[in-house]
Each structure stands twice: as C-alpha cells, then as structure tokens.
Amino acid sequence: MEQLCPRCHEQQVHKSATSNVGRHAGLIGLLIANSAASYNCPTCGKIPLVEFPEEFQSGIKRKRIFSVLGAVGVVVLLIALLFARELM
Ligand SMILES: [Zn+2]
Question: 6 and 49 in contact (C-beta within 8 Å)?
C-alpha cells in the first residue's frame, strides 16, 4: 500500500522494518510486529498512524483483523490435526 506522507505530502512513507524480530519470534511474533509497525517518511522521520487519513487507517485496521483471523485459523487447524492424529 502506497501512501504519501501526511506532513510534507511529497514523499512516500515506508513501513519500518520489523521483519527480523518477527522471524525469530515465529508466526505470533510476526503478527505482533506487524501490528506494532510504524511508518517512516524519508524527510520527516517516524509518523504515528493517527496522522494519516482515515481511509489509510481503516485499511490498516482491516488488514490487522484479517491477519489475526488468519492466525487463529491456523492454530485451530493445527489443534484439529493433532486431535485427528490421536484418534487414529
Ligand atoms: Zn514527510
């Protein structure tokens, strides 16, 4: 998702790199790192999410909900597989 900086309206913001932390902490850590990620403008520096337009914020919130639902789905699937194995 590309978004212009809400301060200078010139540069595009980039999600700050948190992927290394997530890789070490596993899937759940990755989700936490994702939801805690901040955005950086090359000229203005770190920009809190509240400064972005409502549309951008709701887009990110929707993404977070989907990633949380995805993680819950994976966990449920794993538990179901474990139970299926024990029954056999
Ligand atoms: Zn900027």
Answer: no
